[in-house]
Amino acid sequence: MKHLYILFLLCSVSVSFSQKKYSKSYFSNPMDIPVVVAGTFGELRSNHFHSGIDLKTQQKEGIPILAPANGYIYRIKVAQYGFGKVLYVKHPSGFTTVFAHLQRFAPKIQKFVKSVQYKKKSYYTGNLFPEEDKFPVKKGEIIGYSGDTGSSGGPHLHYEIRDSRTDKIINPLHFGLAVKDTRNPIIEKLMVFPLDTNARVNNANVKSIIPIKKIERGKYVSQRIEANGTIGLGVVTFDRQDEAMNRNGIYSLEMHVNGERVYYHDVETFSFAESKYINLLIDYDHYGKFKKKFQKTHRVSKNKLSLYENLINEGKLNIEPLASYNVEIIAKDFKGNASTLRIPIKGVSKNDLEIKKDTTAYKITAVNFHKFQKDGVTIAFPKNSFYHDCYLDFDVNNGIAKIHEPTIPLDKRFTLTFDTSHLNTVEKQQVYIANVTKSKYPKYVATKKKKNKVYTNQKTLGSYALKLDSISPKITLINFADNQWISKNKTLKVKIKDEDSGINGFRGSIDGQWILMEYNHKKGILTYDFSDKKLVGSKHIFKIVVSDKVGNTETISTTFYRKP
Fold this sequence. Notes:
Elements (H helix, E strand, L loop, with lengths): L1 H17 L18 E3 L4 E2 L2 E2 L3 E4 L7 E3 L4 E8 L6 E6 L4 E6 L1 E4 L1 H14 L15 E2 L4 E5 L9 E8 L5 E2 L15 E9 L5 E2 L6 E3 L1 E5 L2 E4 L2 E14 L13 E6 L2 E7 L2 E2 L7 H4 L2 H7 L4 E2 L20 E3 L4 E9 L5 E10 L14 E3 L5 E5 L2 E5 L8 E3 L1 E4 L2 E4 L10 E6 L5 H6 E5 L7 E2 L3 E3 L2 E6 L3 E7 L5 E4 L6 E2 L5 E7 L5 E8 L2 E3 L1 E4 L4 E5 L9 E10 L4 E9 L3
Parallel strand pairs: 18-26, 19-26, 40-47
Antiparallel strand pairs: 1-4, 2-3, 4-12, 5-11, 6-7, 6-10, 7-8, 8-12, 9-11, 12-13, 13-22, 14-16, 14-19, 15-19, 17-18, 19-23, 19-24, 20-21, 20-25, 25-26, 27-30, 28-29, 29-33, 31-32, 32-38, 33-37, 34-35, 34-38, 36-37, 39-41, 41-45, 42-43, 42-46, 44-45, 46-47
């Protein structure tokens, strides 16, 4: 009887932890407009899961952002990229809410931030942590206004809810954020993976995309697969809500074999540290080549994601000759709308194949440090940069260092070094490293310089080369001209542009005094707000200095007039 009681307690604890409840009424909506989702929580992004939910703002900026519960402003940051202007509100319930890509903050917060910016003489504030009693907020109080700052792709609010103790992110839909969604997810493609050299898929030992067709709403069926040995499956799937056409992420993915569930994961919560393992959840090789993300319904080694639940044999299928398998993959959205893909698999005898082995010179043993050199180029990979042993293509041709293709995910950054002893003094100043995997669109990568060499730390394989930038940035006056009266202007705007390495920094001043200029890098526009400070006199000298990433600079000095 005692043993039964202990077993009951263990089962009760297990159930309570696996069915954690979230209050549906504690947080109110962060905006007083209909909730329309532009991007779901846990959505598959490049090298990470989406850590919040993106809420549409009616294609405009300036929608008031409301504190969803009582609390205080815990953290503030202004950055050019990433979240742009962002607020963190800590609540007594043990949660922290995050509001990113803001246009501006509420007046009292805005005043505080600007004082820091003028003190630092920098638009970028770094992380600011006000005292707990400096900015208390009440539920429904305006704390900011929606915008398009940082690495946003258009006006919207990026909204997060975090566990204040662990900093783990939790799907905001669990807290009662209501979204209209009656649509079933869409299952677009199916892939089958032979998971070792003894496996066969339709008499081959290569992964294959299997044709599927939709037979009715939420129901799909694939072409029959003949297989032998250990195989895995993966699908391309997405979801749409009722009031938007965005291809959003699903909430859960599961797989059943002959009626038994063998695979399940969902995006209830995860930590930032594990987000990188998205590259092991998806078929990274296919994504690198075709930009389509197949989500695997099996877990591969080194994948430390916490999203999985009760996997059987890691979701891998062991196919026996003459056996039949009825496989179903089920994709669901948060509302429970589901789509099912039925996959008939027939076990067959293994045929003999000549398996081609990779014998390139640059073998990678994942647990070891590796350093390779060729024609003035050195690449160095720390231990455990790779998730598994592999062979690497490495060549240098016409100054281009080809370091495989961007088809193998890395866990750590590698160091790429170019010898520059052949360059003269001026060229050494102008040189930088560019990613030239897309040859028509070379992209500057963070370049560090030492005597007779330049180097960079990167996490993406591909092609890299040295480039020279000898051209200074361009500066264009927008809403005023030299010697013009601009008393009615509320702002002063200039456009800046650099065709090569890109804009690195800028410094604006009026009458020799530093001014805060906000940079919209998407439009290339710098803006000064005249309300920041009162000017003395009517004649003023505006000066702007702009530099690119190798140090080329351009300066414009102009006169304007304005009534005191």
